[in-house]
Write a structure and sequence with these properties.
- Helix content is 21%, strand content 26%.
- By secondary structure, the protein is α/β, with parallel strands linked by helices.
- The radius of gyration is 24 Å and the shape is globular.
- It starts with a strand and ends with a strand.
Amino acid sequence: MQTEGSRLLLAGGKPRGTLYAVSRFLQDHCGVRWWTPWASRIPSRPTLQLEPLKVQAKPAFEYREPFWFTAFDTDWAIRNCVNGQSANIPPEKGGCIRYKGFVHTFYPLVPPEKHFAEHPEWYSLIGTQRTAKSAQLCLTNPKLRDFLVDRVKQWLRESPEAHIVSVSQNDWHGACQCPECRALDEAEGSPAGSLLAAVNYVAEKIEPEFPQVAVDTLAYQYTRKPPRTIKPRPNVIVRLCSIECDFREPLEAPSNAKFGDDLRGWSRICQRLYIWDYTTDFAHYVQPHPNWFVLGPNLRFFQNLNINGHAAKTFSPLATVGARGEDAATSLGVNYRDERWQVRAAYATIGERFNDEMGFVPRRGIDTTDLYAGMHLRPQAISRWVRELSPHYQLEHVTRRADGGLESRFVDYHLPISFQDGSFVEIGANPTTE
């Protein structure tokens, strides 16, 4: 944005730089605000006087996706410099970042119903049994890796508009415990070791044919901690997820120290690091979320660590109104929390024909019951050393809708201990039934 005498120049680079320059000028110098697609402020002025102006700027993040209903409107997204695929910006308006697969793509890439019978070795070894139920892929298996390469190439040939392809874990635990995967994960100090080794392999193999495409994966739940020695390739994007955090406090706060350490660790080894930030509470979806005063500090925290992308997760565009029976998924939940106790219970039923293409349900044709009870204790007798004890119990019980039979049962007995010096210890046991 630059003035020269009585002339004003608003220009920018491709694909949307000039549009951004116009929007930024209208907001910064004319008082325009696009609050939502249906609410804006457009001041009326007979004349416009400007001080000499010479401003060059660019967005802080290459990928900007507030996953909110408001941001799904194309014009609102352009005016507010949003470029994620949810806005569906057409090419004539500069286009947007396009994913193939988006997230939780292990089973869309390697569907168990097609491949488990012939290749059980491609799926997690849990205990002494290969399984595809609440499981992941065996990421050290050489033939599985080559099959992933072929599938990713197939996806990209089907979707030439894609800039990024997702090769990412399912939305549950169940990492492979075979000797090869376990050895690699133990050497790297995190299950991210076997995940990133496999993703790097896929990224290297597809690069000659698709040099413009990046392979995206997750640092999520059990893979959140970065590996010790393996680094993502330049054409790999890691999306670090903040789902476990205390969203009332900034992500730099002591209560989020463990996430902050993981974030800094990934930022040191990753050339393209995106953040999947949670800006709602899915246990209290319709209630206000107490994060208003931390949104700005968190974004500045990400920018200072040279994070490349940010997605704020709160709403699914695939939510279907009027679905019934086996086409529908329904959930009910109740939650109680005070200074000491947190208790919650949830029930969900997922129809056989429910549209799960985005991967946010574990599988179809099931009923799930989740129970949780936990305490937050700050005992004075040991307060010199211990900040907080957080014992909790969790049950995840999954049955088949068709006959009521048990699919899986996961129990979590856990005792996290936070010390005054910022260190952290977890003691736990996880009896699991398949």
